[in-house]
């Protein structure tokens, strides 16, 4: 199985194809609904003024995201009272909710990998071809198992968004994913959707 | 009245970390059916490993510990107000102990309460007085990913050529499974309610999910439809996680309720493979869990 250290080069990304299992190691950032909206509103479309620690956080996450990976995950975290954080359960959340934002976020931050579950749509697939980037599918619900690949929690930004919605900076070792959308326009999700649509049509015609 | 908070905490811990045996058995069976070396089989093997690990380490099976949905069947004379307070205490403590993720968010401000409490609908509590001296509390944890792919149809539906009969119900449900793809963490389990109003119908589609997977539907016609729907949904080939494969559903549970002459709703609650539900029984001061 291919092992990839983060951040990823364009060459590595271009070499990944749909169906390939990969183990990721290095530093990544979690980010889901609130984070994507915050990025778009504050720094990409700029419909919301920069405020509070926004600028400071933005500058801190830029180098973490360039060539790196964003993980759609709202973890269960222990040590909230002491600040000695530890991931207890950390599987992927459904990615499609970030479809309106993801492509622009990838382009802006030069993100090369998006980890989540359930797959994403044509806008993200287009960004994967341009940036280049790839969508990496983790097993949904496998939260205890995936949390064991998180060696350390290095920090957290925007904890005021709530534990699930904050940006957690984590160091992972052999984090297991499967490439389901690649930088060549391949999408397992589009393929399964189309195949199952045909079967559905047949089933609906049956009775 | 006895303070059941500690027992309720144990009920929550069990629900979050220890998958019920009927679900685990169904996942094991599904694994055997998928081809060796396929992504589908790989996903199911990972799922089973995770189920084991969560049980051993007492950590949440899934990080989305969902909406805690409690059904409380209490004998006459119990204070539902006190039971509510005890459940809330246990829920907050379970959150502090990382059995639950803080999941209760104010819809207007976006603020997470941090302890899974908030308003009278979070957690979701349903009280019912029953005969006898036994208190039964059932808990289901239903995650957001699968809740988001639930669907409600008003028949007839001309797009699906679905009329107001079981054949129409079948078409609506298959459409819902197709729309869900792998997004609800397939292989899923469907709770289906036929009839009711929009509210009661959705509620009944969740209530039916408290049934055991191997428990036969009391109505033979619905039992037959449950089997047919599971088989046909699996023909869609969506598979575990939407990777493609033979197992899209582990099962379906159907119930029906009276409706208005004008309405014919079909409500589908999609439950992810992490079908977390546990029961606690209290009688004469003795507590047991299943």
Write a structural description.
- The complex is a heterodimer of chains A (about 210) and B (about 290).
- Chain A is built from seven helices and nine strands, in the order E-H-E-H-H-E-E-E-H-E-H-E-H-E-E-H.
- Chain A has about 210 residues and is an alpha/beta fold.
- Chain A has a single domain, classed as Fe-S hydro-lyase, tartrate dehydratase beta-type, catalytic domain (fumarase, Alpha-Beta Barrel), CATH 3.20.130.10.
- Chain B has two domains: about 110 residues, Dihydrodipicolinate Reductase, domain 2 (2-Layer Sandwich); about 130 residues, no CATH class.
- In chain B, helix 2 packs antiparallel against helix 3.
- With about 290 residues, chain B is α+β, with helices and mostly antiparallel strands.
- Chain B starts with a helix and ends with a strand.
- The chains are: A alpha/beta (about 210), B alpha+beta (about 290).
- Chains A and B meet through strand 4, helix 6, strand 9 and helix 7 of A and helix 3, helix 5 and helix 6 of B.
What attributes does this structure have?
heterodimer; A: 207 residues; alpha/beta; fumarase; 5-stranded mixed beta barrel; two-stranded antiparallel ribbon; B: alpha+beta; Dihydrodipicolinate Reductase, domain 2; 2 domains; 8 helices; 37% helix; globular
Tell me the strand order in the biggest sheet of chain A. Answer: 2-3-6-7-9
* Rg from Cα of chain B: 19 Å
Name of the CATH first level of chain A: Alpha Beta
Q: State the assembly state of the protein chains.
A: heterodimer
How many helix segments of chain B?
A: 8
What's the total number of strands of chain B? 9
The structure class of chain A reads alpha/beta
Helix content of chain A: 25-40%
The chain pair with the largest interface is: A-B, 52 and 57 residues
Low-confidence stretches of chain A: none
Largest sheet: number of strands, sense, barrel closure of chain A: 5 strands, mixed, barrel
Principal-axes shape call of chain B: globular
Reported for the largest beta sheet of chain B, the result is:
5 strands, mixed
Q: How many distinct helices of chain A?
A: 7
Summing up helix and strand content along with how strands pair, one would put the structural category of chain B as alpha+beta
CATH topology of chain A: fumarase
Q: Order of SSEs of chain A, N→C?
A: EHEHHEEEHEHEHEEH
User: Would you count the extended β strands of chain A for me?
Assistant: 9
Order of helices and strands of chain B: HHHEHEEHEHEHHEEEE
Tally of structural domains of chain A:
1
């Amino acid at each position: 199985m291919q092992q990839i250290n983060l951040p990823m080069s364009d060459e590595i990304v271009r070499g990944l194809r749909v169906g390939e299992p990969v183990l990721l190691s290095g530093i990544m950032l979690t980010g889901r609904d609130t984070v994507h909206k915050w990025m778009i509103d504050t720094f990409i479309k700029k419909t919301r003024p920069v405020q509070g620690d926004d600028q400071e956080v933005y500058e801190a996450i830029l180098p973490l995201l360039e060539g790196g990976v964003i993980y759609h995950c709202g973890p269960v975290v222990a040590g909230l009272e002491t600040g000695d954080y530890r991931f207890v359960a950390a599987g992927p959340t459904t990615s499609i909710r970030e479809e309106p934002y993801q492509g622009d976020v990838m382009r802006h931050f030069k993100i090369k990998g998006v980890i989540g579950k359930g797959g994403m749509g044509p806008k993200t697939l287009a960004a994967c071809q341009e940036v280049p980037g790839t969508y990496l599918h983790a097993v949904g619900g496998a939260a205890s198992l995936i949390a064991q690949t998180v060696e350390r929690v290095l920090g957290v930004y925007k904890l005021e968004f709530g534990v699930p919605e904050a940006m957690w900076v984590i160091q992972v070792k052999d984090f297991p994913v499967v490439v389901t959308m690649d930088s060549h326009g391949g999408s397992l999700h589009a393929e399964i959707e189309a195949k199952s649509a045909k079967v559905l049509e047949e089933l609906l015609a049956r009775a | 009245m006895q303070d059941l908070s500690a027992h309720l905490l144990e009920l929550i811990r069990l629900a979050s970390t220890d998958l019920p045996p009927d679900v685990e058995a169904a996942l094991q069976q599904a694994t055997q059916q998928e081809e060796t070396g396929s992504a589908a089989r790989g996903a199911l093997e990972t799922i089973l490993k995770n189920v084991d690990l969560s049980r051993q380490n007492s950590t949440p099976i899934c990080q989305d510990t969902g909406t805690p949905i409690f059904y409380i069947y209490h004998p006459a004379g119990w204070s539902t107000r006190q039971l509510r307070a005890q459940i809330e205490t246990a829920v907050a403590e379970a959150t502090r102990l990382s059995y639950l993720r803080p999941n209760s968010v104010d819809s207007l401000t976006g603020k997470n309460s941090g302890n899974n409490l908030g308003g009278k609908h979070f957690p979701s509590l349903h009280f019912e007085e029953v005969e006898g001296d036994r208190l039964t509390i059932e808990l289901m944890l239903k995650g957001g990913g699968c809740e988001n792919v639930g669907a409600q149809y008003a028949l007839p539906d001309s797009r699906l050529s679905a009329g107001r009969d079981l054949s129409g119900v079948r078409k609506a449900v298959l459409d819902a499974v197709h729309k869900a793809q792998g997004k609800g963490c397939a292989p899923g389990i469907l709770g289906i309610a036929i009839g009711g109003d929009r509210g009661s119908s959705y509620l009944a589609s969740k209530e039916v999910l408290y049934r055991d997977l191997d428990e036969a539907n009391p109505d033979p016609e619905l039992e037959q439809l449950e089997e047919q729907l599971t088989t046909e949904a699996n023909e869609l080939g969506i598979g575990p996680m939407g990777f493609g494969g033979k197992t899209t559903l582990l099962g379906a549970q159907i119930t029906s309720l009276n409706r208005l002459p004008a309405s014919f709703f079909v409500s589908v609650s999609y439950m992810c493979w992490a079908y977390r539900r546990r029961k606690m029984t209290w009688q004469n001061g003795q507590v047991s869990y299943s």
